[in-house]
Amino acid sequence: MTIFNSLFLSCYYSQNVLAENVINPQKCPDNLENLGDLLVKDLADYGNRIIQRNRIFSHDLEFFPIYIITVGKTDLQPLPLKQTQYKSPIKLQEEDPVKQIFFTTLERQYSSNNRIIETQNFHWLLLTKTPQGWRMIMLLTKLGYPNDSQNFISSPPRDSSDGIIAQSVKLWLRDCQQFSNN
């Protein structure tokens, strides 16, 4: 076998193995619990790829890009979204079309002076099921910063619907749906 063929086969084989391992071939489940489990399994990989793609356009900074180390298990206990103070004359559906997934990320950032900063971030993902598949509505994030006693101090929630994690969720949902259609 020539060197070219060997390289071609190893590249082809590794791409196929990677594609099969990135998204669970069981495809996008309708069940929110299964969807959440599959999502957090792949989210760090998706996020780190987006970060690496964005590094091409980054400037020289004191801090290097953040890396997503791990994504925590999901919590599916929803918070109430409906305003109960005022009664609406419109009859709402029995089942709320907005689904909620809570998860955490552990992220690490390296500085040019060899400092390592870890943050534990708390994410509140709002999804809905459409005929075309799951769609992200919004992502809210609380950033957790370490303090001197090794505890985390968290920020107020902010809309992070255009951030790295949200981009990762959107890309994962798109891929999940595409694999489901194949």
Topology summary:
Elements: H1 3-22, H2 32-55, E1 63-71, E2 98-111, E3 116-130, E4 133-142, E5 144-146, E6 152-154, E7 158-159, H3 164-181
Primary descriptors:
two-stranded antiparallel ribbon; 182 residues; 7 strands; 34% helix; alpha+beta; 3 helices; disordered N terminus; five-stranded antiparallel sheet
End-to-end span in angstroms?
33 Å
Task: State the helix count.
Answer: 3
- Spatial order of the strands in the main sheet? 1-2-3-4-7
Q: Supply the helix-strand structural class.
A: alpha+beta
Q: What is the typical, i.e. mean, pLDDT? A: 76
Note the run of SSEs as H and E.
Answer: HHEEEEEEEH
Strand content: 25-35%
Rg calc: 20 Å
Oligomer state of the chains in this structure: single chain
The biggest beta sheet is recorded as: 5 strands, antiparallel
Uncertain runs are: 1-25, 88-92
Explain this structure.
A hairpin with a 4-residue loop joins strand 2 and strand 3. The protein is globular. The protein is built from three helices and seven strands. 34% of the residues lie in helices and 31% in strands. A five-stranded antiparallel β-sheet has the order 1-2-3-4-7, covered by helices on one side. The protein has a two-stranded antiparallel ribbon with strand order 5-6. Helix 2 packs across helix 3 (164-181). The chain is α+β, with helices and mostly antiparallel strands. Mean pLDDT is 76; it is low at 1-25 and 88-92.
Describe the structure in brief:
By secondary structure, the chain is α+β, with helices and mostly antiparallel strands. The protein has helices spanning 3-22, 32-55, 164-181; strands at residues 63-71, 98-111, 116-130, 133-142, 144-146, 152-154, 158-159.
